[in-house]
Amino acid sequence: MEKRLIKKEALAGIAKRIAEDVTVYAPVRVEENVLFKVLEKGEEPLFTYQNSKNAPKNFFFPRSEVMLRYTRTPKGVEFTAEELFARDGVLMGARPCDARSFVLLDMLFDQEKYKDPYYIEKRNRTTVVSLACAKPPYRECFCTSVGGHPVDDKGADVLITDIGDVFLVEFVTPKGEKLLKYFGDQKADAASEEKKAAVAAAAEAALTWKIATHEVKEKLDRNFNSPFWDGIHKKCLACGTCTFLCPTCHCFDISDEMKYDDGRRLRNWDSCMFPLFTKETSGHNPRPTQKERWRQRVMHKFSYYPENFGAIACVGCGRCVQSCPVNIDIRKIVAEAMELA
Amino acid sequence: MQNPYIPYPVEVIKIVTEVDTKDIKTFRLAFVNKEDEEKFKYTPGQFAELCVYGKGESPIGIASSPTQKGYVEFTVQKAGVVTTALHEMEEGTRMGIRGPLGNSWPIEYLEGKNVVVVGGGFAFTTLRSLINYMIYEDNRKRFGKITVVYGARNPGLLIYKDELKAWAERGDIEMNVTVDKGDATWTGREGFVPTVCKEVAPSPENAVTVICGPPIMIRFTLPVFFDLGFSKENIITSLEMRMKCGIGKCGRCNVGSKYVCKDGPVFTFAELDKLTRDF
Hints:
The structure holds two protein chains of two kinds.
Chain A: E1 2-7, H1 10-21, E2 23-30, E3 33-38, E4 64-73, E5 76-82, E6 89-94, H2 96-109, H3 117-124, E7 126-131, E8 158-162, E9 166-171, H4 174-177, H5 190-206, H6 216-222, H7 229-232, H8 241-245, E10 252-259, E11 262-269, H9 290-309, H10 319-323, H11 330-337
Parallel strand pairs in A: 2-6, 6-7, 7-8
Antiparallel strand pairs in A: 1-9, 2-3, 4-5, 4-11, 8-9, 10-11
Chain B: E1 8-17, E2 24-31, H1 34-39, E3 47-52, E4 56-61, E5 72-77, H2 81-87, E6 94-101, H3 107-110, E7 114-120, H4 125-134, E8 146-152, H5 161-169, E9 174-179, E10 189-190, H6 193-200, E11 207-212, H7 215-228, E12 235-238, E13 254-255, E14 258-259, E15 266-268, H8 269-274
Helix pairs in contact in B: 6-7
Protein backbone atom coordinates (compact mmCIF):
# COMPACT_ATOMS: atom_id res chain seq x y z
CA MET A 1 0.00 0.00 0.00
CA GLU A 2 1.34 3.44 -0.96
CA LYS A 3 1.64 5.85 1.96
CA ARG A 4 2.50 9.51 1.98
CA LEU A 5 2.90 12.27 4.51
CA ILE A 6 1.50 15.75 3.84
CA LYS A 7 1.41 18.98 5.77
CA LYS A 8 -1.97 19.43 7.38
CA GLU A 9 -2.56 22.83 5.81
CA ALA A 10 -1.86 21.34 2.35
CA LEU A 11 -5.05 19.28 2.22
CA ALA A 12 -7.37 22.13 1.21
CA GLY A 13 -5.04 23.01 -1.66
CA ILE A 14 -4.93 19.38 -2.76
CA ALA A 15 -8.73 19.27 -2.79
CA LYS A 16 -8.82 22.40 -4.92
CA ARG A 17 -6.25 20.99 -7.34
CA ILE A 18 -8.24 17.77 -7.73
CA ALA A 19 -11.32 19.93 -8.30
CA GLU A 20 -9.62 21.38 -11.37
CA ASP A 21 -9.69 17.89 -12.94
CA VAL A 22 -12.84 16.20 -11.60
CA THR A 23 -15.81 17.08 -9.44
CA VAL A 24 -14.92 17.24 -5.76
CA TYR A 25 -17.46 16.82 -3.01
CA ALA A 26 -16.15 18.30 0.21
CA PRO A 27 -17.28 19.67 3.54
CA VAL A 28 -17.98 23.39 3.27
CA ARG A 29 -19.28 25.84 5.83
CA VAL A 30 -22.77 26.95 4.84
CA GLU A 31 -24.18 29.44 7.34
CA GLU A 32 -24.02 27.67 10.71
CA ASN A 33 -23.72 24.17 9.23
CA VAL A 34 -20.99 22.12 7.67
CA LEU A 35 -22.40 20.41 4.61
CA PHE A 36 -20.97 18.12 1.99
CA LYS A 37 -21.41 19.78 -1.37
CA VAL A 38 -19.83 20.10 -4.79
CA LEU A 39 -16.75 22.27 -4.32
CA GLU A 40 -17.23 25.33 -6.53
CA LYS A 41 -14.39 27.33 -8.00
CA GLY A 42 -12.85 29.57 -5.37
CA GLU A 43 -14.68 27.84 -2.57
CA GLU A 44 -12.74 26.80 0.52
CA PRO A 45 -13.16 23.24 1.79
CA LEU A 46 -13.13 22.76 5.53
CA PHE A 47 -11.10 19.86 6.89
CA THR A 48 -11.04 20.90 10.53
CA TYR A 49 -14.72 20.11 10.88
CA GLN A 50 -16.32 17.61 13.26
CA ASN A 51 -18.82 15.95 10.98
CA SER A 52 -21.22 17.27 8.38
CA LYS A 53 -24.88 17.88 9.12
CA ASN A 54 -25.88 15.81 6.09
CA ALA A 55 -24.56 12.37 5.26
CA PRO A 56 -22.63 12.26 1.99
CA LYS A 57 -24.78 9.40 0.66
CA ASN A 58 -26.60 11.89 -1.56
CA PHE A 59 -23.74 11.88 -4.09
CA PHE A 60 -24.59 8.25 -4.90
CA PHE A 61 -28.23 8.27 -3.93
CA PRO A 62 -29.48 11.82 -4.41
CA ARG A 63 -32.40 13.17 -2.48
CA SER A 64 -34.19 13.55 -5.78
CA GLU A 65 -33.13 12.12 -9.10
CA VAL A 66 -34.62 11.73 -12.55
CA MET A 67 -34.76 8.10 -13.66
CA LEU A 68 -36.30 8.37 -17.11
CA ARG A 69 -38.25 10.67 -19.40
CA TYR A 70 -41.30 10.26 -21.58
CA THR A 71 -43.49 12.19 -23.94
CA ARG A 72 -47.02 12.20 -25.29
CA THR A 73 -47.42 10.64 -28.73
CA PRO A 74 -50.49 9.81 -30.84
CA LYS A 75 -50.25 6.26 -29.37
CA GLY A 76 -50.20 7.30 -25.74
CA VAL A 77 -47.43 8.47 -23.45
CA GLU A 78 -44.19 6.76 -24.40
CA PHE A 79 -40.71 6.33 -23.02
CA THR A 80 -38.09 8.60 -24.56
CA ALA A 81 -34.86 8.26 -22.59
CA GLU A 82 -33.14 6.67 -19.66
CA GLU A 83 -31.48 9.29 -17.49
CA LEU A 84 -28.45 7.83 -15.83
CA PHE A 85 -26.45 10.69 -14.40
CA ALA A 86 -22.91 9.99 -13.23
CA ARG A 87 -19.57 11.77 -13.40
CA ASP A 88 -16.03 11.20 -12.21
CA GLY A 89 -15.67 12.59 -8.74
CA VAL A 90 -13.75 12.54 -5.51
CA LEU A 91 -15.47 12.66 -2.16
CA MET A 92 -12.95 14.41 0.09
CA GLY A 93 -12.94 14.20 3.83
CA ALA A 94 -15.71 11.73 4.57
CA ARG A 95 -15.59 10.51 8.15
CA PRO A 96 -14.96 6.75 8.55
CA CYS A 97 -18.55 6.16 9.68
CA ASP A 98 -19.88 7.74 6.51
CA ALA A 99 -17.37 5.89 4.32
CA ARG A 100 -18.48 2.65 5.93
CA SER A 101 -22.09 3.49 5.13
CA PHE A 102 -21.24 3.08 1.43
CA VAL A 103 -20.16 -0.51 2.06
CA LEU A 104 -23.54 -1.10 3.70
CA LEU A 105 -25.45 0.60 0.88
CA ASP A 106 -23.49 -1.42 -1.72
CA MET A 107 -24.94 -4.57 -0.16
CA LEU A 108 -28.42 -3.37 -1.03
CA PHE A 109 -27.99 -1.53 -4.31
CA ASP A 110 -25.36 -3.81 -5.83
CA GLN A 111 -26.79 -7.28 -5.27
CA GLU A 112 -26.19 -10.31 -7.43
CA LYS A 113 -29.67 -10.03 -8.88
CA TYR A 114 -31.27 -6.64 -9.50
CA LYS A 115 -28.49 -4.12 -9.60
CA ASP A 116 -29.41 -0.49 -9.20
CA PRO A 117 -27.58 1.27 -12.04
CA TYR A 118 -28.33 4.77 -10.73
CA TYR A 119 -26.44 4.11 -7.52
CA ILE A 120 -23.75 1.84 -8.94
CA GLU A 121 -22.70 4.19 -11.77
CA LYS A 122 -22.16 7.08 -9.38
CA ARG A 123 -20.45 4.93 -6.79
CA ASN A 124 -18.08 3.37 -9.33
CA ARG A 125 -17.01 6.73 -10.65
CA THR A 126 -16.36 8.29 -7.27
CA THR A 127 -13.22 7.92 -5.18
CA VAL A 128 -13.70 8.18 -1.44
CA VAL A 129 -11.04 9.96 0.58
CA SER A 130 -11.71 9.48 4.28
CA LEU A 131 -10.53 11.70 7.07
CA ALA A 132 -10.11 9.61 10.21
CA CYS A 133 -11.44 10.85 13.52
CA ALA A 134 -8.25 11.32 15.54
CA LYS A 135 -10.64 12.50 18.22
CA PRO A 136 -14.27 11.37 18.08
CA PRO A 137 -16.06 14.61 17.25
CA TYR A 138 -19.27 14.22 19.22
CA ARG A 139 -20.61 12.87 22.46
CA GLU A 140 -23.22 11.13 20.31
CA CYS A 141 -20.65 9.10 18.35
CA PHE A 142 -20.90 5.34 18.81
CA CYS A 143 -19.25 3.77 15.75
CA THR A 144 -17.41 1.07 17.68
CA SER A 145 -20.72 -0.25 19.01
CA VAL A 146 -21.92 -1.11 15.53
CA GLY A 147 -18.81 -2.51 13.90
CA GLY A 148 -16.96 0.66 12.95
CA HIS A 149 -13.93 2.49 14.23
CA PRO A 150 -12.88 6.18 14.30
CA VAL A 151 -9.77 5.27 12.28
CA ASP A 152 -11.35 2.78 9.91
CA ASP A 153 -10.65 2.43 6.20
CA LYS A 154 -13.76 0.45 5.27
CA GLY A 155 -15.39 2.10 2.30
CA ALA A 156 -12.41 4.41 1.84
CA ASP A 157 -10.13 4.43 -1.19
CA VAL A 158 -7.76 6.77 0.60
CA LEU A 159 -7.53 7.21 4.36
CA ILE A 160 -6.05 10.34 5.88
CA THR A 161 -5.12 10.30 9.56
CA ASP A 162 -3.96 13.22 11.67
CA ILE A 163 -0.90 11.80 13.40
CA GLY A 164 0.05 14.95 15.25
CA ASP A 165 2.21 17.27 13.20
CA VAL A 166 1.32 15.83 9.76
CA PHE A 167 -1.35 13.86 7.91
CA LEU A 168 -0.63 10.25 7.07
CA VAL A 169 -2.22 9.43 3.72
CA GLU A 170 -2.84 5.76 2.97
CA PHE A 171 -3.89 4.68 -0.52
CA VAL A 172 -6.11 1.77 0.35
CA THR A 173 -7.40 0.71 -3.07
CA PRO A 174 -6.13 0.88 -6.68
CA LYS A 175 -8.84 3.48 -7.26
CA GLY A 176 -7.34 5.53 -4.46
CA GLU A 177 -3.83 5.16 -5.88
CA LYS A 178 -4.92 7.09 -8.94
CA LEU A 179 -4.88 10.17 -6.70
CA LEU A 180 -1.23 9.64 -5.69
CA LYS A 181 0.02 12.42 -7.95
CA TYR A 182 -1.84 15.06 -5.97
CA PHE A 183 -0.28 14.13 -2.67
CA GLY A 184 3.40 14.90 -3.17
CA ASP A 185 6.26 12.48 -2.75
CA GLN A 186 7.11 12.35 0.93
CA LYS A 187 6.80 8.65 1.74
CA ALA A 188 5.60 7.60 5.14
CA ASP A 189 8.05 5.94 7.51
CA ALA A 190 7.56 3.26 10.14
CA ALA A 191 7.30 5.86 12.88
CA SER A 192 4.21 7.35 11.27
CA GLU A 193 2.60 3.88 11.31
CA GLU A 194 3.22 3.67 15.03
CA LYS A 195 1.82 7.13 15.55
CA LYS A 196 -1.29 6.15 13.60
CA ALA A 197 -1.75 3.06 15.78
CA ALA A 198 -1.46 5.23 18.88
CA VAL A 199 -3.96 7.75 17.47
CA ALA A 200 -6.39 4.93 16.65
CA ALA A 201 -6.14 3.46 20.14
CA ALA A 202 -6.63 6.86 21.76
CA ALA A 203 -9.60 7.65 19.54
CA GLU A 204 -11.23 4.38 20.38
CA ALA A 205 -10.68 4.93 24.09
CA ALA A 206 -12.15 8.43 23.84
CA LEU A 207 -15.53 7.12 22.66
CA THR A 208 -17.71 7.42 25.71
CA TRP A 209 -20.79 5.66 24.36
CA LYS A 210 -20.46 1.94 24.13
CA ILE A 211 -23.45 -0.30 23.78
CA ALA A 212 -23.44 -4.03 23.43
CA THR A 213 -25.00 -5.09 20.14
CA HIS A 214 -23.99 -8.75 20.00
CA GLU A 215 -27.12 -10.87 19.68
CA VAL A 216 -29.24 -7.72 19.45
CA LYS A 217 -30.95 -9.34 16.47
CA GLU A 218 -32.01 -12.37 18.50
CA LYS A 219 -33.28 -10.12 21.30
CA LEU A 220 -35.31 -8.01 18.93
CA ASP A 221 -36.71 -10.99 17.04
CA ARG A 222 -37.85 -12.59 20.27
CA ASN A 223 -39.51 -9.36 21.40
CA PHE A 224 -41.37 -8.30 18.28
CA ASN A 225 -44.66 -8.34 20.18
CA SER A 226 -43.23 -7.14 23.48
CA PRO A 227 -44.68 -4.13 25.36
CA PHE A 228 -41.17 -2.74 24.88
CA TRP A 229 -42.44 -1.12 21.68
CA ASP A 230 -45.38 0.60 23.32
CA GLY A 231 -43.45 3.58 24.64
CA ILE A 232 -40.65 4.37 22.21
CA HIS A 233 -42.68 6.14 19.58
CA LYS A 234 -44.78 8.27 21.89
CA LYS A 235 -42.71 11.44 21.51
CA CYS A 236 -42.11 10.92 17.80
CA LEU A 237 -43.41 13.68 15.52
CA ALA A 238 -42.94 11.56 12.36
CA CYS A 239 -40.82 14.36 10.91
CA GLY A 240 -38.42 11.92 9.26
CA THR A 241 -35.29 13.91 10.19
CA CYS A 242 -33.58 10.76 11.49
CA THR A 243 -34.03 8.92 8.22
CA PHE A 244 -33.04 11.88 6.04
CA LEU A 245 -29.79 12.43 7.94
CA CYS A 246 -29.00 8.73 8.27
CA PRO A 247 -26.08 7.58 6.11
CA THR A 248 -27.60 4.11 5.64
CA CYS A 249 -31.31 4.84 5.20
CA HIS A 250 -32.12 4.05 1.61
CA CYS A 251 -35.91 3.97 1.29
CA PHE A 252 -37.29 5.83 -1.67
CA ASP A 253 -40.45 6.70 -3.50
CA ILE A 254 -40.91 6.72 -7.26
CA SER A 255 -43.16 9.37 -8.70
CA ASP A 256 -44.17 10.81 -12.04
CA GLU A 257 -44.29 14.44 -13.09
CA MET A 258 -45.72 15.71 -16.32
CA LYS A 259 -45.91 19.18 -17.78
CA TYR A 260 -47.76 19.65 -21.06
CA ASP A 261 -46.58 16.77 -23.25
CA ASP A 262 -43.35 15.89 -21.51
CA GLY A 263 -42.73 14.11 -18.27
CA ARG A 264 -40.19 12.44 -16.08
CA ARG A 265 -40.08 9.70 -13.50
CA LEU A 266 -38.14 10.54 -10.35
CA ARG A 267 -37.09 8.84 -7.25
CA ASN A 268 -37.06 10.76 -4.02
CA TRP A 269 -36.00 9.80 -0.55
CA ASP A 270 -38.86 8.46 1.46
CA SER A 271 -39.12 7.53 5.12
CA CYS A 272 -40.50 4.63 7.11
CA MET A 273 -41.46 7.26 9.69
CA PHE A 274 -44.19 8.65 7.40
CA PRO A 275 -47.72 7.25 7.76
CA LEU A 276 -48.21 7.13 3.98
CA PHE A 277 -45.08 5.08 3.41
CA THR A 278 -46.92 1.77 3.54
CA LYS A 279 -50.53 2.90 3.20
CA GLU A 280 -52.30 0.93 0.51
CA THR A 281 -54.90 2.14 -1.97
CA SER A 282 -57.60 0.22 -0.12
CA GLY A 283 -56.90 2.29 2.98
CA HIS A 284 -55.26 -0.62 4.77
CA ASN A 285 -51.95 0.23 6.40
CA PRO A 286 -49.78 -2.64 7.63
CA ARG A 287 -47.96 -0.19 9.91
CA PRO A 288 -50.91 1.79 11.16
CA THR A 289 -49.31 3.79 13.98
CA GLN A 290 -45.94 5.31 14.82
CA LYS A 291 -45.31 2.29 17.05
CA GLU A 292 -45.12 -0.11 14.12
CA ARG A 293 -43.05 2.42 12.16
CA TRP A 294 -40.50 2.78 14.95
CA ARG A 295 -40.36 -0.97 15.38
CA GLN A 296 -39.70 -1.23 11.65
CA ARG A 297 -36.90 1.34 11.82
CA VAL A 298 -35.14 -0.44 14.66
CA MET A 299 -35.79 -3.94 13.31
CA HIS A 300 -34.63 -2.99 9.82
CA LYS A 301 -31.32 -1.70 11.07
CA PHE A 302 -30.59 -4.20 13.83
CA SER A 303 -32.39 -7.39 12.74
CA TYR A 304 -33.43 -7.49 9.09
CA TYR A 305 -30.23 -6.03 7.64
CA PRO A 306 -28.06 -8.39 9.70
CA GLU A 307 -30.25 -11.26 8.51
CA ASN A 308 -30.13 -10.30 4.85
CA PHE A 309 -26.61 -8.92 4.58
CA GLY A 310 -24.76 -9.89 7.75
CA ALA A 311 -24.25 -6.32 9.01
CA ILE A 312 -26.03 -3.83 11.23
CA ALA A 313 -27.39 -0.97 9.11
CA CYS A 314 -26.13 1.74 11.43
CA VAL A 315 -22.68 3.32 11.42
CA GLY A 316 -22.95 5.10 14.76
CA CYS A 317 -22.55 8.62 13.38
CA GLY A 318 -25.03 9.95 15.93
CA ARG A 319 -26.78 12.33 13.50
CA CYS A 320 -30.25 11.01 14.30
CA VAL A 321 -29.55 11.41 18.00
CA GLN A 322 -28.26 14.96 17.60
CA SER A 323 -31.02 16.20 15.35
CA CYS A 324 -34.14 14.53 16.67
CA PRO A 325 -36.39 17.40 17.76
CA VAL A 326 -37.81 15.33 20.63
CA ASN A 327 -34.57 13.65 21.71
CA ILE A 328 -35.33 10.09 20.73
CA ASP A 329 -32.05 8.24 21.09
CA ILE A 330 -31.56 5.04 19.11
CA ARG A 331 -28.56 4.15 21.30
CA LYS A 332 -30.80 4.04 24.33
CA ILE A 333 -33.43 2.01 22.49
CA VAL A 334 -30.83 -0.58 21.52
CA ALA A 335 -29.28 -0.55 24.98
CA GLU A 336 -32.71 -1.15 26.51
CA ALA A 337 -33.50 -3.86 23.96
CA MET A 338 -30.33 -5.62 25.11
CA GLU A 339 -31.86 -5.82 28.59
CA LEU A 340 -34.85 -7.77 27.26
CA ALA A 341 -35.16 -11.47 27.79
CA MET B 1 -26.02 -3.32 -16.96
CA GLN B 2 -29.72 -3.95 -17.60
CA ASN B 3 -31.65 -1.13 -15.95
CA PRO B 4 -34.43 -2.85 -13.99
CA TYR B 5 -36.39 0.39 -13.69
CA ILE B 6 -36.99 0.78 -17.44
CA PRO B 7 -40.29 -0.76 -18.56
CA TYR B 8 -40.77 -2.69 -21.78
CA PRO B 9 -43.06 -0.84 -24.20
CA VAL B 10 -46.36 -2.64 -24.76
CA GLU B 11 -49.62 -1.95 -26.55
CA VAL B 12 -53.06 -2.63 -25.12
CA ILE B 13 -54.58 -4.97 -27.70
CA LYS B 14 -57.73 -6.08 -25.90
CA ILE B 15 -59.76 -4.91 -22.91
CA VAL B 16 -62.44 -7.08 -21.30
CA THR B 17 -64.79 -5.74 -18.63
CA GLU B 18 -65.05 -8.64 -16.19
CA VAL B 19 -67.80 -7.64 -13.75
CA ASP B 20 -71.21 -5.97 -13.66
CA THR B 21 -69.83 -3.13 -11.56
CA LYS B 22 -67.41 -2.44 -14.46
CA ASP B 23 -64.52 -1.69 -12.13
CA ILE B 24 -62.52 -4.82 -12.94
CA LYS B 25 -61.07 -5.13 -16.41
CA THR B 26 -58.61 -7.50 -18.03
CA PHE B 27 -55.96 -5.87 -20.19
CA ARG B 28 -54.22 -7.87 -22.88
CA LEU B 29 -50.83 -6.34 -23.64
CA ALA B 30 -48.57 -7.12 -26.60
CA PHE B 31 -44.88 -6.26 -26.65
CA VAL B 32 -44.00 -3.51 -29.12
CA ASN B 33 -40.58 -5.12 -29.64
CA LYS B 34 -40.89 -8.85 -30.23
CA GLU B 35 -37.57 -9.60 -28.54
CA ASP B 36 -38.90 -8.19 -25.25
CA GLU B 37 -41.45 -10.99 -25.07
CA GLU B 38 -38.58 -13.46 -24.86
CA LYS B 39 -36.97 -11.41 -22.07
CA PHE B 40 -40.26 -11.25 -20.18
CA LYS B 41 -40.25 -14.97 -19.44
CA TYR B 42 -42.51 -15.61 -16.50
CA THR B 43 -43.98 -18.31 -14.29
CA PRO B 44 -47.54 -18.31 -12.89
CA GLY B 45 -47.67 -16.36 -9.62
CA GLN B 46 -45.27 -13.64 -10.68
CA PHE B 47 -46.29 -10.01 -11.07
CA ALA B 48 -45.22 -6.94 -12.98
CA GLU B 49 -45.25 -3.20 -12.54
CA LEU B 50 -47.79 -1.75 -14.95
CA CYS B 51 -46.51 1.61 -16.03
CA VAL B 52 -48.70 4.46 -17.17
CA TYR B 53 -46.25 7.24 -17.93
CA GLY B 54 -47.29 10.46 -16.28
CA LYS B 55 -49.26 8.61 -13.60
CA GLY B 56 -46.93 6.02 -12.14
CA GLU B 57 -46.68 2.29 -11.71
CA SER B 58 -48.84 -0.32 -10.07
CA PRO B 59 -47.78 -3.86 -9.11
CA ILE B 60 -50.26 -6.36 -10.56
CA GLY B 61 -50.23 -10.17 -10.71
CA ILE B 62 -49.91 -11.73 -14.15
CA ALA B 63 -53.27 -13.23 -15.08
CA SER B 64 -52.28 -14.99 -18.28
CA SER B 65 -50.33 -18.23 -18.44
CA PRO B 66 -46.90 -18.47 -20.04
CA THR B 67 -48.47 -21.04 -22.35
CA GLN B 68 -50.45 -18.21 -23.96
CA LYS B 69 -48.06 -16.72 -26.51
CA GLY B 70 -47.97 -13.27 -28.04
CA TYR B 71 -49.32 -11.31 -25.09
CA VAL B 72 -49.59 -11.00 -21.31
CA GLU B 73 -52.77 -10.26 -19.40
CA PHE B 74 -53.50 -8.39 -16.21
CA THR B 75 -56.81 -8.10 -14.44
CA VAL B 76 -57.01 -4.77 -12.68
CA GLN B 77 -59.47 -3.25 -10.27
CA LYS B 78 -59.97 0.49 -10.61
CA ALA B 79 -58.76 1.89 -7.31
CA GLY B 80 -55.96 4.47 -7.35
CA VAL B 81 -54.34 6.90 -9.76
CA VAL B 82 -52.61 4.37 -12.01
CA THR B 83 -55.40 1.82 -12.16
CA THR B 84 -57.94 4.57 -12.88
CA ALA B 85 -55.78 5.77 -15.77
CA LEU B 86 -55.59 2.18 -17.00
CA HIS B 87 -59.34 1.86 -16.88
CA GLU B 88 -59.67 4.95 -19.04
CA MET B 89 -57.40 3.50 -21.71
CA GLU B 90 -58.56 2.31 -25.09
CA GLU B 91 -57.29 -0.55 -27.21
CA GLY B 92 -54.28 0.57 -29.21
CA THR B 93 -52.78 2.67 -26.41
CA ARG B 94 -49.11 2.26 -25.58
CA MET B 95 -47.83 1.88 -22.04
CA GLY B 96 -45.08 -0.04 -20.23
CA ILE B 97 -44.55 -3.12 -18.11
CA ARG B 98 -41.64 -3.90 -15.85
CA GLY B 99 -40.92 -7.46 -14.77
CA PRO B 100 -41.58 -10.26 -14.36
CA LEU B 101 -41.08 -9.69 -10.64
CA GLY B 102 -41.14 -11.83 -7.53
CA ASN B 103 -41.06 -15.57 -7.05
CA SER B 104 -43.91 -17.71 -8.36
CA TRP B 105 -46.24 -20.53 -7.50
CA PRO B 106 -43.91 -23.49 -6.82
CA ILE B 107 -44.63 -25.32 -10.07
CA GLU B 108 -42.01 -28.02 -9.55
CA TYR B 109 -43.28 -28.71 -6.06
CA LEU B 110 -46.85 -28.97 -7.34
CA GLU B 111 -45.91 -31.51 -10.00
CA GLY B 112 -47.15 -35.01 -9.26
CA LYS B 113 -49.45 -33.69 -6.53
CA ASN B 114 -53.16 -33.01 -6.27
CA VAL B 115 -53.71 -29.27 -6.38
CA VAL B 116 -56.56 -27.50 -4.62
CA VAL B 117 -57.04 -23.94 -5.89
CA VAL B 118 -59.09 -21.66 -3.66
CA GLY B 119 -59.91 -18.13 -4.76
CA GLY B 120 -62.17 -15.35 -3.60
CA GLY B 121 -63.49 -12.39 -5.55
CA PHE B 122 -61.01 -10.51 -7.61
CA ALA B 123 -57.98 -12.29 -6.10
CA PHE B 124 -58.23 -15.03 -8.68
CA THR B 125 -55.83 -13.61 -11.24
CA THR B 126 -52.57 -15.44 -10.65
CA LEU B 127 -54.65 -18.52 -9.76
CA ARG B 128 -56.16 -18.32 -13.24
CA SER B 129 -52.62 -18.19 -14.61
CA LEU B 130 -51.77 -21.32 -12.61
CA ILE B 131 -54.91 -23.19 -13.71
CA ASN B 132 -54.40 -22.39 -17.38
CA TYR B 133 -50.80 -23.46 -17.05
CA MET B 134 -51.65 -26.79 -15.40
CA ILE B 135 -54.39 -27.74 -17.85
CA TYR B 136 -52.45 -26.75 -20.95
CA GLU B 137 -52.05 -29.74 -23.28
CA ASP B 138 -49.18 -31.93 -22.09
CA ASN B 139 -48.77 -30.02 -18.81
CA ARG B 140 -51.99 -31.60 -17.51
CA LYS B 141 -50.46 -35.03 -16.93
CA ARG B 142 -47.68 -33.54 -14.77
CA PHE B 143 -50.25 -32.71 -12.08
CA GLY B 144 -52.68 -34.89 -10.14
CA LYS B 145 -56.28 -34.05 -9.45
CA ILE B 146 -57.12 -30.36 -9.77
CA THR B 147 -59.92 -29.06 -7.56
CA VAL B 148 -61.03 -25.45 -7.80
CA VAL B 149 -63.18 -23.57 -5.30
CA TYR B 150 -63.88 -20.07 -6.49
CA GLY B 151 -66.38 -17.67 -4.97
CA ALA B 152 -67.60 -14.11 -5.30
CA ARG B 153 -70.18 -12.07 -3.47
CA ASN B 154 -72.69 -12.33 -6.31
CA PRO B 155 -72.80 -13.78 -9.83
CA GLY B 156 -72.02 -10.42 -11.41
CA LEU B 157 -68.74 -10.23 -9.55
CA LEU B 158 -67.30 -13.52 -10.79
CA ILE B 159 -64.39 -12.84 -13.11
CA TYR B 160 -63.36 -14.93 -16.15
CA LYS B 161 -66.95 -16.16 -16.58
CA ASP B 162 -66.39 -17.74 -20.00
CA GLU B 163 -63.33 -19.60 -18.79
CA LEU B 164 -65.12 -20.84 -15.67
CA LYS B 165 -67.71 -22.40 -18.00
CA ALA B 166 -65.10 -23.86 -20.32
CA TRP B 167 -63.15 -25.38 -17.41
CA ALA B 168 -66.35 -26.89 -16.00
CA GLU B 169 -66.97 -28.59 -19.33
CA ARG B 170 -63.56 -30.27 -19.34
CA GLY B 171 -63.49 -33.57 -17.55
CA ASP B 172 -60.05 -33.13 -16.01
CA ILE B 173 -60.63 -30.40 -13.45
CA GLU B 174 -63.22 -30.23 -10.67
CA MET B 175 -64.87 -26.82 -10.59
CA ASN B 176 -66.80 -25.54 -7.57
CA VAL B 177 -67.97 -22.03 -8.32
CA THR B 178 -70.01 -20.40 -5.61
CA VAL B 179 -71.55 -17.03 -4.78
CA ASP B 180 -72.43 -15.66 -1.38
CA LYS B 181 -75.87 -14.82 -2.69
CA GLY B 182 -77.34 -15.73 -6.08
CA ASP B 183 -79.78 -13.79 -8.20
CA ALA B 184 -82.82 -14.67 -10.35
CA THR B 185 -80.68 -16.21 -13.09
CA TRP B 186 -78.16 -18.01 -10.89
CA THR B 187 -78.49 -21.78 -10.95
CA GLY B 188 -75.16 -22.59 -9.39
CA ARG B 189 -73.99 -23.06 -5.85
CA GLU B 190 -74.60 -20.60 -3.04
CA GLY B 191 -72.42 -20.39 0.04
CA PHE B 192 -69.24 -18.86 1.39
CA VAL B 193 -65.89 -20.19 0.24
CA PRO B 194 -64.91 -21.74 3.62
CA THR B 195 -68.25 -23.60 3.78
CA VAL B 196 -67.88 -24.87 0.24
CA CYS B 197 -64.32 -26.01 0.97
CA LYS B 198 -65.67 -27.98 3.92
CA GLU B 199 -68.32 -29.61 1.71
CA VAL B 200 -65.89 -30.38 -1.10
CA ALA B 201 -63.47 -31.72 1.52
CA PRO B 202 -60.39 -32.34 -0.62
CA SER B 203 -58.07 -35.02 0.71
CA PRO B 204 -54.75 -33.79 2.13
CA GLU B 205 -53.11 -36.93 0.73
CA ASN B 206 -50.29 -35.81 -1.58
CA ALA B 207 -52.09 -32.49 -1.98
CA VAL B 208 -51.29 -28.81 -1.86
CA THR B 209 -53.73 -25.94 -1.43
CA VAL B 210 -53.09 -22.68 -3.20
CA ILE B 211 -55.25 -19.92 -1.78
CA CYS B 212 -55.82 -16.28 -2.65
CA GLY B 213 -58.56 -13.98 -1.50
CA PRO B 214 -59.62 -11.24 0.86
CA PRO B 215 -58.12 -11.57 4.37
CA ILE B 216 -61.50 -12.42 5.88
CA MET B 217 -61.91 -15.35 3.49
CA ILE B 218 -58.41 -16.61 4.22
CA ARG B 219 -59.00 -16.30 7.96
CA PHE B 220 -62.07 -18.56 7.84
CA THR B 221 -60.81 -20.94 5.16
CA LEU B 222 -57.47 -21.78 6.77
CA PRO B 223 -59.00 -23.67 9.74
CA VAL B 224 -61.05 -25.74 7.29
CA PHE B 225 -57.89 -26.97 5.61
CA PHE B 226 -56.12 -27.54 8.91
CA ASP B 227 -59.11 -29.65 10.01
CA LEU B 228 -58.93 -31.59 6.76
CA GLY B 229 -55.33 -32.41 7.64
CA PHE B 230 -53.35 -30.03 5.42
CA SER B 231 -50.08 -28.89 6.95
CA LYS B 232 -48.90 -25.26 6.90
CA GLU B 233 -46.17 -26.28 4.47
CA ASN B 234 -48.83 -27.34 2.00
CA ILE B 235 -51.01 -24.26 2.11
CA ILE B 236 -49.59 -21.57 -0.10
CA THR B 237 -50.72 -17.99 -0.59
CA SER B 238 -49.67 -14.77 -2.25
CA LEU B 239 -49.31 -11.48 -0.38
CA GLU B 240 -49.89 -7.93 -1.46
CA MET B 241 -48.19 -4.84 -0.09
CA ARG B 242 -47.65 -1.32 -1.25
CA MET B 243 -44.67 -1.41 -3.59
CA LYS B 244 -42.59 0.95 -5.66
CA CYS B 245 -39.34 -0.53 -6.97
CA GLY B 246 -40.40 -4.18 -7.11
CA ILE B 247 -36.81 -5.33 -6.61
CA GLY B 248 -36.24 -5.10 -2.88
CA LYS B 249 -34.63 -1.68 -2.64
CA CYS B 250 -37.20 1.00 -1.88
CA GLY B 251 -37.90 -0.51 1.53
CA ARG B 252 -41.65 -0.55 2.07
CA CYS B 253 -43.06 -4.01 1.31
CA ASN B 254 -41.15 -6.07 3.85
CA VAL B 255 -42.76 -8.55 6.19
CA GLY B 256 -40.05 -9.11 8.73
CA SER B 257 -36.78 -9.49 6.85
CA LYS B 258 -38.46 -10.60 3.62
CA TYR B 259 -39.50 -8.31 0.84
CA VAL B 260 -42.85 -9.28 -0.64
CA CYS B 261 -41.70 -7.97 -4.03
CA LYS B 262 -38.55 -10.02 -4.32
CA ASP B 263 -38.71 -12.84 -1.75
CA GLY B 264 -42.48 -13.23 -2.32
CA PRO B 265 -45.24 -12.63 -3.16
CA VAL B 266 -45.75 -16.39 -2.75
CA PHE B 267 -45.23 -17.84 0.73
CA THR B 268 -46.37 -20.98 2.51
CA PHE B 269 -48.15 -20.48 5.81
CA ALA B 270 -45.23 -22.25 7.46
CA GLU B 271 -42.94 -19.52 6.11
CA LEU B 272 -45.30 -16.76 7.19
CA ASP B 273 -45.41 -18.20 10.69
CA LYS B 274 -41.68 -17.65 10.99
CA LEU B 275 -41.87 -14.03 9.93
CA THR B 276 -42.64 -11.21 12.28
CA ARG B 277 -46.07 -10.17 11.13
CA ASP B 278 -46.56 -6.64 9.98
CA PHE B 279 -49.08 -6.84 7.17
